């Protein structure tokens, strides 16, 4: 019985250095491929979020211009939209008060809205 236990304890099995290095190389290749792909996904998501944010600010500016005396053009900042209750900002780091919406080109009901950041 003791001999059998000694035989089992002496029988050490594991991975060789070559096998471990092969796994590390394979993982490195996977990471090298995955990181740029993930970066592109994040960039596209950020671009989509920025477009949605711009649309929200323009909608708030449209409401502002239709409810105030500025009938044909003018500018309004996000700070003015926030203080007037036209827009609610939960994350002020992403939507700065220095963003300005300018309305121009009033041909009937067609206006051009431009967003700039000072």
Automatic annotation (TrEMBL):
Pfam families: N_methyl (PF07963). It comes from the Bacteria. One of its GO terms (biological process) is establishment of competence for transformation. GO terms for cellular component: cell surface. The chain crosses the membrane at residues 20-42. Signal peptide: none annotated. It is found in: Cell surface. Keywords: Competence, Membrane, Transmembrane, Transmembrane helix. InterPro entries: N_methyl_site, Pilin-like. This is Type IV pilus assembly protein PilA. It comes from Alkalibacterium olivapovliticus.
């Amino acid at each position: 019985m003791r001999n059998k236990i000694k035989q089992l304890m002496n029988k050490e099995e594991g991975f060789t250095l070559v096998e471990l290095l092969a796994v590390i190389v394979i993982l490195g290749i996977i990471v090298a491929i995955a990181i740029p792909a993930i970066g592109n996904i994040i960039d596209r998501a950020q671009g989509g979020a920025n477009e949605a944010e711009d649309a929200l600010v323009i909608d708030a500016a449209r409401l502002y211009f239709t409810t105030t005396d500025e009938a044909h053009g003018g500018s309004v900042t996000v700070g003015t939209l926030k203080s007037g209750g036209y827009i609610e900002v939960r994350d002020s780091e992403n939507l700065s008060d220095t963003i300005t919406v300018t309305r121009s080109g009033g041909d009937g009901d067609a206006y051009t809205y431009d967003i700039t950041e000072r």
